[in-house]
Specification:
mainly alpha; 167 residues; single chain; 7 helices
Length: 167
Amino acid sequence: MVPGDTPPAAAAAPPARAATAPRRPVLVAALVVWAASVAVVTLRPSSDYDGQLDLVRRVTDWLVTHGIPLTFALVEALANVAMFAPLGVLLVLLAAAPAGRSARGLRLMVRVALVGLAISTGIEVAQALWLPSRVATVQDVVMNTLGAAAGAWATLVVLDRRARTRA
């Protein structure tokens, strides 16, 4: 090796930060798509969804009559959780460094839940003020917040396990 040459191992190893840099715009784009989708679903008059909701009611009524306790209220609550879980996932991934089961991970999860709470509260207030055909409920806020927290928690668990396997 000639003086001044870089050893092959050092030249091949990219900095750790470089690996996450290209994915940040993708995550931000996904967050924008999520936000737009949630806005379309939650900030339109409920009459836009009457046909779809009637179908869900019929299916859940049929399931209940056949001994499967999947009511419309339960489906609606679970849909609110599922709608905000991607927010938790994306915000944790945007935090860039895996926090794992540390106090930092718990603080991150709490911050994500608070963001979910703020967004959901904003949606419900908008529904109450400007969409008389929609019913703003505290349950929706609670379920959306739980969804954001659940998405954050699941992502932290996966990142922690991945970091442990690599170590």
